[in-house]
Structures are given as C-alpha cells and as structure tokens.
C-alpha cells in the first residue's frame, strides 16, 4: 500500500471522522487544548520514536507548540479551519484505537506518522508563519 492510499484510508476512516467531530469542541476550549498537548507529549515519550522519524517528531513538537500558543492566546494568526485540523490530527494521534492500532509493534504508528507529515505539508504557509513568529518572540524575549 503506498502512502497516498494509506492517507486516503485514514482521512476517510471512522476513527479520523470521530477525531474531527471532537476537534471543533476542543479548539474552542483552552483547558481541553492544554490537556491534549499533555497527552501528545506523554505519547511521544512512551513510544520513543527513533531513527528516521525525526521529521515526524519535529512535526509533532511544532504542532504541540502551536497548540499551546493558540490556547494561551499568544498566537492567533492561524485560521480556525487549520487549528481544527491540527486538533483533529493530535486527537487521532493520542487515540490508541485508530486505523492501525498502536499496540501493533512498529506498524501501529504508521498511520500516525503519515497523518502528521501530511498535515505539516498541507499547512505549509501556516506552519512557516508560526515558526517565524516563534523565532521573533524568542529574539524579543532574549533581547
């Protein structure tokens, strides 16, 4: 199965649709966003991604920082639709039961990896804008 067909199966799955259904409610609730960020961090630590998954891990960490900045009100220069997509992907990521259940060694995270990388590429300009904002904030806070 190639990456594109896997991605299409994920996006059309009942599991991702459930995550999308929850995402709108989460995106409007600061407490839920912060809890979701904590769950994502815990899963990253639990799974212990190694080797060539650096792009994936960096992508998840970027999404976590974006989520936290949005939840705190520090960063709102992202469209509502994009934020809901970020939240839906992170809800899917922390869910142990999805298209490919996470308890299956190695292959269990394949769908999570494909979905996160797809989202980072899809959001392209929005993630670049956020990264630039982050760098500027650090410069201002250090300077």
Assembly level: single chain
| Average of pLDDT | 87
The number of domains: 1
Low-confidence stretches at least 5 residues in length (pLDDT < 50)? none
Strand residue percentage? under 5%
Largest sheet: none
What is the overall shape?
Answer: globular
**Helix percentage:** over 70%
The termini sit apart by 50 Å
Q: Please compute the radius of gyration using only Cα atoms.
A: 15 Å
The string of secondary-structure elements, in order, is HHHHHH
Number of helices: 6
User: How many β strands by DSSP?
Assistant: 0
| Backbone structural class | mainly alpha
Give keywords.
mainly alpha, 76% helix, 6 helices, 143 residues
Description:
- The protein is mainly alpha-helical and 143 residues long.
- Helix content is 76%, strand content 0%.
- The chain has one domain.
- The protein has 6 helices and no strands.
Question: How is this fold's topology laid out?
Answer:
Layout: H1 3-11, H2 14-27, H3 30-47, H4 54-72, H5 80-94, H6 110-142
Helix pairs in contact: 1-6, 2-5, 3-4, 3-5, 4-5, 4-6, 5-6
Quick structural summary:
This protein has six helices and no strands. The chain is mainly α.
